[in-house]
Specification:
By secondary structure, the chain is of the alpha/beta class. It has a single domain (3-180), classed as Rossmann fold. Helices cover 30% and strands 33% of the residues. The protein contains six helices and ten strands; from the N terminus they run αββααβαββββαβαββ. α3 packs across α4 (61-72). Bound molecules: guanosine-5'-monophosphate (5GP). Guanosine-5'-monophosphate is lined by residues 19-21, 27, 60, 99-100, 124-132, 156, 161.
């Protein structure tokens, strides 16, 4: 088991509706030493890529992406949830359906902060059905930026997002992949990953 899987086993709580709660170390209270390790592991996995910017989506991706950006020595930009219906022409827009809140949000990134010269590492906390990542990829495409790879802290391998993103040909690295979880017993099963740091 890697450092993250161990922490999920210790402090993760399986909820009904395919939701894994990791509020004590990732999504509400954050364990900063763990965040540093996560940032280093993303750097290790994408060491051969010439990343110019890390991109994520608010809110829960921000802390993680910040630690990854620090390792690469590049800025981090996050897509903001936007309430305004009439979006001005100076932003890239995507519509993202929220898995946890079951609503749709328009998310925007200013054209000031993303362009054709950017080589992006896209980061998020969880991967479920892939809506958040697909929204971020569409923003990158609209900007003419290159998506060098995508890094996820916890992928739920029993949902289809991982397959969709890998089938599109992207390098997707998930630090932990949950293949099964049971809200009744609280059991969590991880996928074996060859290149995992212990
Ligand atoms: P997707 O867009 O891939 O369907 O879902 C990913 C997004 O939904 C992530 O940004 C994450 O915030 C949220 N999410 C999806 N599944 C879970 C989960 O099991 N636990 C938590 N805490 N967030 C989740």
């Amino acid at each position: 088991m890697n450092f993250l899987e161990e922490r999920i086993m210790k402090d993760g709580v399986v909820k009904p509706g395919n939701v894994l709660k990791v509020d004590s170390f990732l999504n509400h209270q954050m364990d900063i030493s763990l965040m540093e390790e996560i940032g280093k592991e993303f750097k290790r996995r994408f060491a051969d890529k010439n990343i110019t910017k890390v991109m994520t989506i608010e809110a829960s991706g921000i802390g993680i992406a910040a630690f990854a950006a620090k390792e690469f020595g590049v800025p981090m930009v996050f897509a903001k949830k936007s309430k305004s219906i009439n979006i001005a022409g100076d932003v890239y827009v995507a519509e993202v359906e929220s898995f946890t809140h079951q609503n749709k949000n328009q998310v925007v990134v200013s054209k000031q902060f993303l362009g054709p010269d950017d080589h992006l590492l896209i980061i998020d906390d969880f991967l479920a059905n892939g809506c958040a990542l697909l929204g971020l990829i569409s923003i990158a495409d609209a900007a003419g930026a290159t998506v060098e790879g995508l890094g996820i802290v916890i992928e739920k391998g029993f949902q289809f997002g991982g397959r969709v993103i890998r089938n599109l040909g992207y390098q997707l690295e998930s630090l932990a992949i949950v293949d099964a979880m049971d809200p009744e017993t609280g059991s969590i099963t991880f996928r074996e990953q060859a290149d995992s740091v212990r």
